[in-house]
Amino acid sequence: MKKTVLLGAMTIAGLAAGAASAATMDDVKARGKLNCGVTTGLVGFAAPDANGEWDGFDVGVCRAVAAAVLGDPSAVEFVPTTGKTRFTALASGEIDMLARNTTWTFSRDVDLKFEFVGINYYDGQGFMVPKELGVSSAKELDGATVCIQTGTTTELNLADFFRANNISYEPVPIETNAEAQPLYLEGACDVYTTDASGLAATRAAFENPGDHVVLPEIISKEPLGPLVRHGDNEWGDVVRWTLNALIAAEELGVTSANIAELAAGTNNPEINRLLGTEGNLGEMLGLNADWAKMAIMAGGNYGELFETNIGENTPIGLSRGLNAQWTDGGLLYSPPFR
Amino acid sequence: MSTMTDPPSESFRLSQLINDTRYRSYTFQFIALIALVALIAFLGANLISNLAAAGLNISYEFLGEPAGYDINQRLIEYNSQSSHWRAAVVGVLNTLLVAVVGCFLATVIGVAVGVLRLSNNWLIRKIMAVYVEIFRNVPVLIWILIIMAVFIAILPQPRDFRGEDAEASMLLGSFAFTGRGFYFPKPVMGPGSGIVVAVFLASIAGIFYLRSYAKKALFDRGQMIPTLWPSVGLFFVPVILAFFVMGQPITLEYPELKGFNFKGGIFARNSLIALTFALAIYTAAFIAENVRAGILAVSKGQTEAAASLGLRPGRIMNLVVLPQALRVIIPPLISQYLNLTKNSSLAIAVGYMDLTGTLGGITLNQTGRAIECVLLLMLFYLTISLSISAIMNVYNNAVKLKER
Ligand SMILES: N[C@@H](CCC(=O)N[C@@H](CS)C(=O)NCC(=O)O)C(=O)O
């Protein structure tokens, strides 16, 4: 593949230039920073806090990867992306990975050539309406004006849902969640639709969250997860197993509180392999032996990340539901560390 | 002793390519051309090899696939099962709608403001100057967003029209001005309405004929034929007569609040209105300056000569100054039309589904075919822009100074 400085400036030609550049891990290590694509701002998932520090559930995944690869959870450059810009950003190499409530779909995987490394939130698309409209089911929305984010699975599901139920609607396309809020609150749209987790997060940011209801229908499956480019399997493995490490840590009872103690060695071989006191899993990934320990220490295990960012004791108040461990009747199931 | 200077030899030496002014410019142009071709070939080859390395190819097959998304404003039949190509065409038509209405409004406002900026009235002059400076110096995207935000914040939403003691009500029971857009009554064509329309078109043609006849009479014989009242009469009387003779075939369908929104009538969406209006008043500020420049370019002697012939100020402007000013105004006006058309691609800021919103937005994003979509997008805009230039150039040739 030809490399050229000139090309960098050519948007179109440049679009594909970085696409196939393998060895993302070497780039990240050389740079000393992980470029991680996140949302433009969705409280609980990814948003800058009062000090301008990015914080949230998806941000937690970025920090865990940075900790595993670079040993420093703050060595992350967060790149805000919209539903529209995220895939170009990843394909062009502007970001090393994307953690932005992105749904794993066939065409994104096969046609757009991205590799979803796992699922960090099992979601589905829902509808939110003001209580005063007195709507109790999405099937009553005939003729409603609906705000949707463009470039999402949301807009495709919406078209299918209304078609299948033979009711009409008026779509109002918008680019970011932040733009949708005033439109919805001022009544320019009757309904706001997106992933149910996103609705909860958006509603939590309202002045009077109680004035709005989320309708019972969930009209789609939205498995959200981090993704990388096709074609760089080593890097894909690193991100995949970092996510798995967070999930496995919860299952194995490894938390940010007891990890220092457990890292001294336990009589559970799987914990030992995970934390690098036994075996050489880190080396196989091309990382240090304590890679998973660093990842877990960055923000805690999966359960801790969930509870601090979006769990029941936060304003967003999501319950674990499908996102509980398989041992608790949920769908989270990390393959074994062996 | 006589030294003979050689007659200038016609033999050609290579160094002449650089040193001889007759050839030098060709040499450099040729080198530049080669460099350009090489650069393009290199970029193209690079693009193709990189695409191949990434396992991608250039293919327009996706245009035939179902688009899968809905578009709120469509001038032709379209639903989510229609193809991406059709979605692109819906986008083109929406772009053209904004461009045509926007250019028309911008011209009307621009000419009025340009003329008024030269008014003798101090206050009017200053107000127009303030208008021009404010709109010229703030980016058009900001105007679009401001107008849309004001629109949504100030006007009542359909839900405010509901209930016994509703906060808002319809104007004359037939117009609804809501934050989502304006609803008007729509004419419904019954049987026999074609004749009414034909009569109306005939009267319009009649008005044009009358005006050109009056102009000819004025120029040939110096005879003034009144045109204002006859035109007004021609406009209204025949069509009203035809309407009643045919037994009132055209009725109105009124918008009505049904469920979440008004139904029926004509709906002008908030995004369309805000975008068109913002583009029009922004571009009008530039056109006003062109018009002012054009008028000032007509020498003062012309005005004075016309005045000494006893023409009234209105006639001086219309018959003497503006026709000459047009020659100066038209060429920059073409650029303004092109600017307006291209600026309409900011439509997505208010959720208006123009070409950039459909083909360059949702289609590009859902299919991931960025290069194909961008190339096609450029082609569409190029075609639209070149067509506008071509049409305007024809007009320019018609009004420009004819040398006899
Ligand atoms: N899961 C869907 C939708 C993702 C999406 O756009 N989510 C919204 C709300 S849940 C979001 O993250 N918005 C933040 C932003 O606008 O940057 C997809 O992948 O297409």
From TrEMBL, chain A:
Coiled coil: none annotated. This is Amino acid ABC transporter substrate-binding protein. Residues 33-262 form the Solute-binding protein family 3/N-terminal domain. It holds the Pfam family SBP_bac_3. InterPro entries: Bact_solute-bind_prot3, Solute-binding_3/MltF_N. It comes from Thalassococcus lentus. Keywords: Signal, Transport. Residues 1-22 form the signal peptide. Belongs to the bacterial solute-binding protein 3 family. The keyword Hydrolase does not apply. The keyword Zinc does not apply.
